[in-house]
Amino acid sequence: MLSTVFTLLGLAWTSSFLLGAVKLVKLYLVTPSNLHRYVYSSGGGGGDSSARDQRKEIQKDPWAVVTGASDGIGRFLAQELAAAGFNVVLHGRNTTKLEKVQAELQRAHPARSFRLLEADAGLAADSGGDNDEGAQQLGLDVTAMVRNELEVLHITGLVNNVGGGNRNPLMGDFLEYSPRQNTEAVSKESLFAIHLTHALLPRFRKNRGGVALVISVGSMADVGMPLTATYSASKAFNKTLLETLALEDRLARMEGSREGGEVEIMYVRLGDVTEVSWRRGPASLLMPDARTAARAILARVGCGRSVVTAHWAHELFRLAFAGLLASLREKLLLSIMRGWRAEQVTGSFK
């Protein structure tokens, strides 16, 4: 009897492993990206025309907004989107860097158009239009920014990429950071994306006969990594928010309470990446460069999942990590973070 039980357990584990392997092959090697689905001209524009300045002509060509586009993954996301046929709004807070990226993109894609959106995502404090003066006192009024800077564009894609958590130091105990530093980090990671998504989502749903795409670039830190408390918590928040928005959209369509264009909403998780602002050095199997990461993110569009890992090697690591006993997961996580903290102290974190 005991041997039969162990045999059945072995067969169940093997079946589960094989099924998982088939799913991974299908996801990363078979399923094509449908990014092209969002590259289409407007038949008259989305959004509420009654709220627009009638003197402004709505541009009909497709646009994508990329936040944090001045460096790293965001810069390469902008490149890949332009190559796919989008005009691109480049968001960042450093005008000099943004202008450099814009010039680089314009040379590579002369048929595309590029706009700059300069805003400090760490100061997001949206008023929702109820109290503009109060929002301005607190920080950035994202709704007003969208209304003033993006209203005439036919936007069919939004990639919330800006982030990075606290930077001084990059990794530290929660109490090493001031309340203001933690607030700005959460604003940069989550609040700016919330307000931007909230401002654009009604327009996406009103795209005439079209569809729209919302991506939040996530992290494997969403499981909760020590020494990155606000960063990890913000990524976990983003994951839950995007997953919930996708479910809300499905529920509304099941109930027949929502009309208009379809919106694909995705939280796309990444692991460690090189050639970004906080890490330089050669790429490896488990640490792809920023260009590879950007391509992997967009390759997952249309995969049918609201939460997905961008790169196949990161997904294998995530599955292996999740399969460990809780005590072993904690020990491995603590060992990794101790090593990174030691590299940070010695200045060898590259």
From TrEMBL:
It holds the Pfam family adh_short. Keywords: Oxidoreductase. Transmembrane segments: none annotated. InterPro entries: NAD(P)-bd_dom_sf, SDR_fam, VLCFA-Steroid_DH. The keyword Ligase does not apply. The keyword Lipid metabolism does not apply. It comes from the Eukaryota. Belongs to the short-chain dehydrogenases/reductases (SDR) family. This is Uncharacterized protein.
